[in-house]
């Protein structure tokens, strides 16, 4: 089992023929991802050779889905064109769109988020400005390094890309069922709560690690959800304990105002919900290890 992404997922890459798309398509193929096509209207009908694997290029997401049965799209599309690319994926009703692109204007993200809702939320959006998601040993949709961990029974949901990688590496001997990088922008598709709900329902996930950041109230809302709905042990980490008040982090969403949104406030909310919270990523990994291994 896994959440959102399995070995049977058929993945297309919007922006596959660009430099970043080419680089990461090759890496995803190396991780065993079933990539069935790319999308570029200007190069429709051609194909790209990735070390002997020919990947066809289609003119649209809809055409790629009709020809291949694709059910996941990973987007490596420049910020100026990302909104149109996500809207195209939503119009095609692809079940999962993973938006890697950084620097998308917030009003563009808000627009495609609202558009997905108006169309009945038939497309789950992960991101934008995220590393994507990986089910180790099965499939990798995004830019998470595929060789830093193994399959296991920990579920990870994280706002931060680099902290995702660190946590996976620290717990590599135990392994992960799935890891989902949701992104740190103010407007994102899939939230901590969405991932927590999926991990709670996944029989192959025994423990959940949740990584947040200062700013906003997403972690506080996740704490309320955990208290009411999650029976599995949850371990948390909030980046930004040492940030001065009012400090803006690298992610546009991480802005602290008063006590709301501070690392300490989030830590207290999570602990009140029964979540063990580490002060550093390594301490968080140790807490997870103690629960699972003893």
TrEMBL record:
Record's keyword annotation contains Nucleotide-binding: yes
Cellular component, GO annotation: cytosol; succinate-CoA ligase complex (ADP-forming)
Record-listed E.C. numbers: 6.2.1.5
Listed Gene3D superfamilies: NAD(P)-binding Rossmann-like Domain, Succinyl-CoA synthetase domains
Top-rank taxon: Bacteria
GO biological process, one term: tricarboxylic acid cycle
Binding site for CoA: 17-20, 43, 100-102
Reactions catalysed according to its record: GTP + succinate + CoA = succinyl-CoA + GDP + phosphate; succinate + ATP + CoA = succinyl-CoA + ADP + phosphate
NCBIfam families: PRK05678.1, sucCoAalpha
Protein name per its UniProtKB record: Succinate--CoA ligase [ADP-forming] subunit alpha
Taxonomic placement: Bacteria, Bacillati, Actinomycetota, Actinomycetes, Kitasatosporales
């Amino acid at each position: 089992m896994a959440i959102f992404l399995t070995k049977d997922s058929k993945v297309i890459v919007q922006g596959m023929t660009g430099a970043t798309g080419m680089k990461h398509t090759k890496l995803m193929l190396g991780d065993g991802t079933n990539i069935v096509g790319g999308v570029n209207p200007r190069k429709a009908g051609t194909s790209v050779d990735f070390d002997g694997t020919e990947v066809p290029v289609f003119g649209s997401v809809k055409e790629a889905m009709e020809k291949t049965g694709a059910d996941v799209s990973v987007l490596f599309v420049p910020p100026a064109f990302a909104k149109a690319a996500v809207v195209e994926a939503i119009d095609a009703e692809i079940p999962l769109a993973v938006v890697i692109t950084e620097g998308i204007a917030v009003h563009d993200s808000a627009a495609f988020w609202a558009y997905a809702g108006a169309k009945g939320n038939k497309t789950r959006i992960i991101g934008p400005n995220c590393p994507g998601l990986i089910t180790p040993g099965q499939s990798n949709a995004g830019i998470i390094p595929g060789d830093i961990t193994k399959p296991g029974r920990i579920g990870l949901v994280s706002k931060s890309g680099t902290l995702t990688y660190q946590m996976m590496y620290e717990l590599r001997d135990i392994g992960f069922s799935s890891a989902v990088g949701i992104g740190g922008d103010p407007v994102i598709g899939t939230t901590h709560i969405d991932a927590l709900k999926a991990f709670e329902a996944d029989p192959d996930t025994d423990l959940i690690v949740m990584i947040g950041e200062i700013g906003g109230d997403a972690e506080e809302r996740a704490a309320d959800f955990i208290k009411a709905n999650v029976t599995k042990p949850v371990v948390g980490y909030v980046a930004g304990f040492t940030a001065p008040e009012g400090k803006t982090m690298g992610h546009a969403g991480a802005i602290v105002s008063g006590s709301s949104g501070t690392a300490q406030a989030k830590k207290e909310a999570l602990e009140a919900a029964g979540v063990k919270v580490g002060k550093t990523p390594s301490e968080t990994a140790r807490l997870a290890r103690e629960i699972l291994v003893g």
